[in-house]
């Protein structure tokens, strides 16, 4: 039987990734910061729920590069390549057949709005990494949108359990204007680190800035220290 084998391989790959990145994750700002700056109640990670300089909004503003690609599900593909042993090109059905995760998390935009307690469903970046087997030299990812947007992340940030490629928001398909059919979310970092209309995740052996990082946004993008621009 192939299925149990496949599952065993994914579990094994996950355990290895976890072991490899556990300490680095413990040292990321959103885990290691003993004096996070912000106001409000403590959130689910023990952080003040409103990071410094942010204001809560109930609405959900739309930010893009002036173009919202319309990606039909029959044509949709997700390429995961670069410094990996098993590059993949997933169809929509392939993507939905992967382990699905429900999560509630917050969204902090660098333009100073935050939206709290958003309910998502999608696939963990960690589970996608387990599928492709990053090479030992892999340290970062570069994510590409169908609109030509790019953004980079270190693997210790990308492998956190709330980093998801989401297709569902509040039990409905993610709206096109917000990056549907699938976008990434990075709840512990400013939201520009999550590519809307995601089409490719490239594993890298050295950091490489994305669209906003090349234009003066912070590479690290940590909300609880006002880490907005470099
Ligand atoms: N593909 C793509 N992803 C993107 C962007 C973009 O312009 N293109 N903008 C980023 C920025 S700056 C933010 S704050 C969030 C905004 O997501 P929203 O429009 O759903 O609020 O998406 C991020 N991801
Ligand atoms: Mo943003």
List the helices and strands and how they pair.
Layout: H1 2-26, H2 29-32, E1 38-42, E2 48-51, E3 55-56, E4 78-82, E5 88-90, H3 92-96, E6 101-108, E7 113-124, H4 125-132, E8 140-145, E9 150-154, H5 155-158, E10 164-169, E11 172-173, E12 183-185, E13 198-204
Parallel strand pairs: 3-7, 4-13
Antiparallel strand pairs: 1-2, 4-5, 6-7, 7-10, 8-9, 8-13, 10-11, 10-12
Helix pairs in contact: 1-4
This protein binds the ligand Nc1nc2c(c(=O)[nH]1)N[C@H]1C(S)=C(S)[C@@H](COP(=O)(O)O)O[C@H]1N2 and molybdenum atom (MO).
Residues 63, 109-111, 191-192 line the site of molybdenum atom (MO).
Gyration radius (Cα, Å) is: 17 Å
Named once each, the bound ligands are: the ligand Nc1nc2c(c(=O)[nH]1)N[C@H]1C(S)=C(S)[C@@H](COP(=O)(O)O)O[C@H]1N2, molybdenum atom
CATH architecture: Alpha-Beta Complex
Computed structural class: alpha+beta
**What's the number of domains?**
1
CATH topology: Sulfite Oxidase, Chain A, domain 2
Task: State the separation between the terminal residues, measured CA to CA.
Answer: 52 Å
Main sheet attributes: strand count, strand direction, barrel closure: 6 strands, mixed
Which descriptor suits the 3D outline? Answer: globular
Low-confidence stretches: none
Mean pLDDT: 96
> How many β-strand stretches?
13
Q: Tell me, what is the CATH class?
A: Alpha Beta
Beta-strand percentage range? 25-35%
Determine the number of helices (DSSP H or I, runs of at least 4 residues): 5
The CATH superfamily turns out to be: Oxidoreductase, molybdopterin-binding domain
The helix-strand sequence is HHEEEEEHEEHEEHEEEE
**Helix content range:** 10-25%
């Amino acid at each position: 039987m192939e299925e149990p084998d496949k599952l065993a391989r994914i579990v094994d790959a996950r355990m290895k990734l976890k072991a490899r990145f556990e300490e680095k994750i413990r040292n990321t700002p959103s885990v290691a910061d003993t004096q996070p700056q912000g106001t409000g109640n403590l959130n689910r990670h023990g952080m003040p729920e409103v990071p410094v300089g942010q204001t809560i909004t109930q609405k959900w503003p739309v930010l893009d590069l002036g173009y919202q690609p319309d990606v039909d599900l029959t044509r949709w593909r997700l390429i995961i390549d670069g410094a990996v042993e098993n590059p993949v090109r997933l169809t929509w059905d392939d993507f939905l057949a992967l382990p699905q995760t429900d999560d509630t998390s917050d969204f902090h935009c660098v333009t100073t709005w935050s939206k709290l307690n958003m309910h998502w469903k999608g696939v963990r970046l960690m589970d996608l990494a387990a599928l492709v087997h990053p090479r030992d030299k892999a340290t970062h990812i570069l994510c590409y949108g169908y609109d030509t947007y790019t953004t980079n992340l270190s693997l210790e940030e990308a492998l956190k359990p709330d980093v998801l490629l989401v297709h569902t928001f509040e039990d409905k398909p993610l709206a096109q204007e917000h990056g549907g059919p699938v976008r990434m979310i990075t709840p512990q970092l400013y939201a520009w680190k999550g590519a809307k209309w995601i089409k490719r995740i490239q594993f890298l052996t050295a950091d490489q800035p994305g669209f906003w990082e090349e234009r003066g946004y912070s590479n690290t993008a940590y909300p609880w220290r006002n880490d907005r621009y470099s």
